[in-house]
Automatic annotation (TrEMBL):
SUPFAM superfamilies: Immunoglobulin. It comes from Vulpes vulpes. One of its GO terms (biological process) is homotypic cell-cell adhesion. InterPro entries: EJ_Adhesion_Regulator (IPR052307), Ig-like_dom (IPR007110), Ig-like_dom_sf (IPR036179), Ig-like_fold (IPR013783), Ig_sub (IPR003599), Ig_sub2 (IPR003598), Ig_V-set (IPR013106). Residues 269-339 are annotated as: Disordered. Component of the epithelial apical junction complex that may function as a homophilic cell adhesion molecule and is essential for tight junction integrity. Also involved in transepithelial migration of leukocytes through adhesive interactions with JAML a transmembrane protein of the plasma membrane of leukocytes. The interaction between both receptors also mediates the activation of gamma-delta T-cells, a subpopulation of T-cells residing in epithelia and involved in tissue homeostasis and repair. The keyword Signal applies. Its main location: membrane. The chain crosses the membrane at residues 239-260. CDD domains: IgV_CAR_like (cd20960), TM_EGFR-like (cd12087). The gene is CXADR. This is Coxsackievirus and adenovirus receptor isoform X2.
Length: 352
């Protein structure tokens, strides 16, 4: 509110005194992103203007939610250009002698955020003047991509497309055929200024090199494509080949799976057999070794016995057959006294 009141007062003083005046008319300037914008502001003084010279540039951003910002100031024979961080280092007075009547500025390396209304205010008491300049920053068309959308075969329908990666609207398109002496079909006349050319029932005469130029108010860019309309391919053969290839792949996969499973079963069987053989089970003793040990122990006992006990002992012991599981040392049995009525030979000794 205070700024508006100040503006009204300044305008009133300027109108009243009719001394200081800005000769540059209000205007609109369009520039491309990255370029430098020249914002003119030239003024004249009268003999009545004796006060100190003050020059102030303000920016009203395109975003209405932001307040006006002072971007550069000349006061007391000094320049102050660090008021607005977004434009710091990018805004400069064009003249080295501002008292000569030139308060113009340059804004370098333009950005989209620089869009807005710039106001030049000049004061040299009692004279005051101001002018506004509308700055628009546009983006040149760039990154143009040309391509064919569809199958380039005789009799087919497809499209030629031209797409810019970036570029400020409005955009204008222009298609041209660069190769061959053949002209473009008359049906294309309406599409030569659009981003898409629709081709119906294509023929070989459409083949060639095409260019697409995209233009806006601040620049242009171009791309090219090669269109080659060919006879239809053998789709049946292609499909059959694809089916055969898939079947062969399935058979190969089946064989691999079968071999893997077979190998796993064999490895599992070998592990089980190996595990059974290595079971820690003691082997059985043979009948011969058991009988020999049994008889040997009895012979040793027999030598210590009297002849009177031999008959009963022999009848008792040699009628018994030792078993395979017999592991304990046999004890000498208690034999009843008996008389030998026949001769018995054992270990080269004859007993009567």
């Amino acid at each position: 509110m205070a700024l508006l009141l100040r503006f009204v007062l300044l305008c009133g003083v300027a109108d009243f005194t009719r001394s200081l005046s800005i000769t540059t008319p209000e205007q609109m300037i369009e520039k491309a992103k990255g370029e430098t914008a020249y914002l003119p502001c030239k003024f004249t003084l009268s003999p009545e203007d004796q006060g100190p010279l003050d020059i102030e540039w303000l920016l009203s951003p395109a975003d209405n939610q932001k307040v006006d910002q002072v971007i550069i100031l000349y006061s007391g024979d000094k320049i102050y250009d660090d008021y607005y961080q977004d434009l710091k280092g990018r805004v400069h007075f064009t003249s080295n002698d501002l008292k000569s009547g030139d308060a113009s500025i340059n804004v370098t390396n333009l950005r989209l955020s620089d869009i807005g209304t710039y106001q030049c205010k000049v004061k040299k008491a009692p004279g005051v003047g101001n002018k506004k300049i509308q700055l628009t920053v546009l983006v040149k068309p760039s990154g143009i991509r040309c391509y064919v959308d569809g199958s380039e075969e005789i009799g087919n329908d497809f499209k030629l497309k031209c797409e810019p990666k970036e570029g400020s609207l409005p955009l204008q398109y222009e298609w041209q055929k660069l190769s061959n002496s053949q002209k473009t079909p008359p049906s294309w006349s309406t599409d030569m200024t659009s981003p898409v050319i629709s081709i119906k029932n294509a023929s070989t005469e459409y083949s060639g090199t095409y260019s697409c130029t995209v233009t806006n108010r601040v620049g242009s860019d171009q791309c090219q494509l090669r269109l080659n309309v060919v006879p239809p391919s053998n789709r049946a053969g292609t499909i059959a080949g694809a089916v055969v290839g898939i079947l062969l792949a399935l058979v190969l996969i089946g064989l691999i799976v079968f071999c893997c499973r077979k190998k796993r079963r064999e490895e599992k069987y070998e592990k089980e057999v190996h595990h059974d053989i290595r079971e820690d089970v003691p082997p059985p003793k043979s009948r011969t070794s058991t009988a020999r040990s049994y008889i040997g122990s009895n012979h040793s006992s027999l030598g210590s016995m009297s002849p009177s006990n031999m008959e009963g002992y022999s009848k008792t012991q040699y009628n018994q057959v030792p078993s395979e599981d017999f592991e304990r040392t046999p004890q000498s049995p208690t034999l009843p006294p008996a008389k030998f009525k026949y001769a018995y030979k054992t270990d080269d000794v004859t007993v009567v």
